[in-house]
Amino acid sequence: MKKSSNYSILLGAAFLMATSAVGPGFLTQTTTFTQTLAASFGFVILISIIIDIGVQLNIWRIIAVSGKRAQEIANDVLPGLGVFLSILIVMGGLAFNIGNIGGAGLGTNVLFGISPELGALLSGVLAIGIFLVREANRIMDRFAQIMGFVMIALTIYVMFTAQPPLGEAAVKTFAPDTIDFLAIVTLVGGTVGGYITFAGGHRLLDAGLKGKESLPEVTKSSVSAIGIASIMRIFLFLAALGVVAQGLQLDPQNPPASVFQHAAGNVGYKIFGIVMWAAAVTSVVGAAYTSVSFIRTFSGWLEKYHKWLIVAFIAVSTIVFVFIGQPAKVLVFVGSLNGLILPISLGVMLLAAHNKKIVGDYKHPVWLTFTGIVIVIAMAYMGIYSMINGFGNLFS
Questions:
Q1: How far apart are CA 134 and CA 141, in angstroms?
Q2: Which residues of 259-292 are buried (b: 16+ CB within 10 A; e: fewer)?
Q3: In whole angstroms, what is the distance from residue 261 CA to residue 257 CA?
Q4: Fewer CB atoms near the end CB (10 Å): N or C, the chain?
Q5: Domain total for the chain?
Q6: Please, what sign has the CA dihedral across residues 294, 295, 301, 307?
């Protein structure tokens, strides 16, 4: 495979994972926590980035070395575990894709004044169209890259117009007034929870990048993915901080829209529409692709018609939103499950990393194993806590 082709695939996988993470929930979480924690939210972002990298490095490396998708690895660790993991992933992906479709509808409503339902329908049709073309994977990669650059560029513009207190943000990132552990877990779950962390890893596998010889490239792509999502998070945080520091109140019904509107007026509000739409549609694409990648290996028929399964996945999400709306109770329940998917999936990967039948003579770095174990314990505790206290929807 040519180096230029490799580079395109690696970048595409990184952006697929990153734009899957940057959805409507990502925008809302970031602005809401900035309002409550102010400059100290910088510390939460810093810690979550470190954890995200630890998760991503472990999972992507094991997928690459084994040459298998996560559900196949899980079944090798314990028969039936892969099926269980796939059920969790698909349930979470489908439920939150309804929310992503809703976000796309909101974005088109802001931009063109059409109803959220019509906007959602048109956005769903566009997402389906991506998978109907002959070179669907290449189009998906390019779409994720373009939308990712658009979101980051527009958010940087709004950040500068908001004039945030950069000095205070820098100081509080390393010396916060308060430490909010739930906020840390929420951000980790929103970046590498559920299906999201597998999006890029499975994409690289589909492109044929696997084996120990590909680890340097896989490592760069996995860290780049976290970097892209984190850049978006940081600039959105600074934009929100600039607004909050001026004493302006955010609309509790739509915090991110308030940030963009307060910072740049009506132009900012339209920019929010573009960012919301781009974030939502790329998350729809990523959720559909990754969720189906968890079930396509279970039979030859599913593998043969996996593109049509992706189309059906998006169609069902769109139809549910257009005709029923976002089922809040379902979203909360499945969100709680999503909070537990990360420790389960990462725990499985760590077991697989030391199973010669799965990884052969590959030696997993001790520091990655230790980091992974710490993350599994912390996320399992907080995932159970979130289910008990009903905060599971924050992990979407």
A1: 14
A2: bbbbbbeeebbbbbbbbbbbbbbbbbbbbbbbbb
A3: 6
A4: N
A5: 1
A6: negative
How far apart, in whole angstroms, are the C-alpha atoms of residue 106 and residue 110? Answer: 6
What pLDDT score does 394 carry?
A: 41
- Per-residue pLDDT tens digits for 199-210: 999 999 888 888
Look at residues 255, 259, 21, 42 and name the one whose alpha carbon lies nearest to residue 157. Answer: 259
- The segment with the largest mean pLDDT, out of 127-141, 152-166, 192-206, 246-260, is 152-166
Quote the CA–CA distance of 359 and 361 in Å, as a whole number: 6
Q: What is the pLDDT of residues 307-351, one digit of tens each?
A: 999 999 999 999 998 888 765 555 545 555 566 788 889 999 999
| 395 vs 194: CA distance, rounded Å | 8
The parent domain of residue 77 ranges over 3-395
Q: For residue 162, give the CATH number of its domain.
A: 1.20.1740.10
| Residue-level length of the chain | 396
Of all residues in the chain, what percent are helix, strand and coil, respectively (each to 5)? 85, 0, 15
The two tokens of residue 389 are 């206290």
Say which range, 65-69, 194-198, 304-308, 385-389, has the weakest mean pLDDT: 385-389
Q: Note the pTM of the prediction, 2 decimals.
A: 0.87
DSSP secondary structure code for residue 179 in this structure: -
d(CA 233, CA 27): 8
What are the structure tokens assigned to 361, written together? 């003579």
Q: For residues 276 and 286, what is the distance between their CA atoms, to the nearest angstrom?
A: 15
104-108's contacts with Cβ under 8 Å and 24+ in sequence apart are 104/276, 104/277, 104/280, 104/281, 104/284, 105/321, 106/24, 106/254, 106/273, 106/276, 106/280, 107/273, 107/274, 107/275, 107/276, 107/277, 107/278, 107/279, 107/280, 108/273, 108/277
Q: How confident is the model at residue 275 (pLDDT cuts 50, 70, 90)?
A: very high
